[in-house]
Amino acid sequence: MPDRPAISVIIPTRDCLCFLPRAVASVGCAPELEIVVVDDGSTDGSRDWLAAEAQRDCRLRVLVGGGIGPAKSRNLAIGAARGQLLAFLNARDCWHPAKLIFQLRLHHANPALAFSFSGSRKLDADENELAPGFAAWPCFSARHNARAAPFVLETDALAQIYAEPVVVTSTVVARAELVREVGGFDADLPGTAAWDLWLRLAARGRVGCVPAVLVDRCAPPEADRVSAMRGEVLGMHMIAARHAAAAERLHPRAARTFAARLLSADAELAAAADRRWRAAWLRLNAWRQMPTRGTTRAAAGALLHAMALA
After folding, report:
1. Do residues 52 and 124 lie in contact, with contact meaning Cβ atoms separated by under 8 Å?
2. pTM score
3. 133-181 confidence digits (pLDDT tens)
4. H or E, element range at 110
5. Residue 243 — φ and ψ, nearest 5°?
6. CATH classification of 7-223, choosing from 1.10.540.10, 3.90.550.10, 3.20.20.60, 2.40.150.20?
């Protein structure tokens, strides 16, 4: 491995041994990179597998997190990384073979990029496709669905990323120096630390996109969904407090889109707690912010569900 690798691949892991070998293998065999894995207190044999793998592959460096969580684990790796670029990969996800090639070309052509990202697809436990590319995000898709080649987002990139969380962590390649300048991941943001970092980077530089699907990501276990949703909604409120004004200045519609999504997320939590009228009121407000076919259906459904109690 060279003294200064071109790119550092950062993988935090905790008890993901059934996924981790696939994730590491998906990085490929390019010699000009290093793989920094933070084992955050695994008890499933990950530590032994990583030790053996590090003996086989000199590019692999293993750090110990000790139960500090994914945001702090990534920050630990960022502090130790030697590459000029950082690529992030979750232990449950894997890259397609051409992923780094496409993004490194984009960065070499645009060396001032703050970061780049690509499309991804979400898979369930049986590897059924749940969400391909950017199809889940209608505003971003409508604006960019005609693009096939890598491109640099317009100067309102922050507003686009704020309106819809189009940036998936395992797709990102970022300039290491800038990531350190902005302070890395904020571990105080539950469920949204990565989103917050992409917004802070977008405030400091241009953002590139490879519209192809280059990452497979594994959906989290359904049993964790409600708890994760609470954290994500709290994190969304904190994202709004930090970034709404900047997004509003760049693109007022982006701020309204985010506001509608936040109201809809609050409605989901209310419905999960069987607060049906509260959920209906929130859905109606989401529809007022963004009157689309989807918000209309959701508001009507929530009203009918609430009225069934009367």
Report:
1. no
2. 0.93
3. 888 898 999 999 889 999 999 999 999 999 999 999 999 999 999 999 9
4. none
5. -120, -5
6. 3.90.550.10
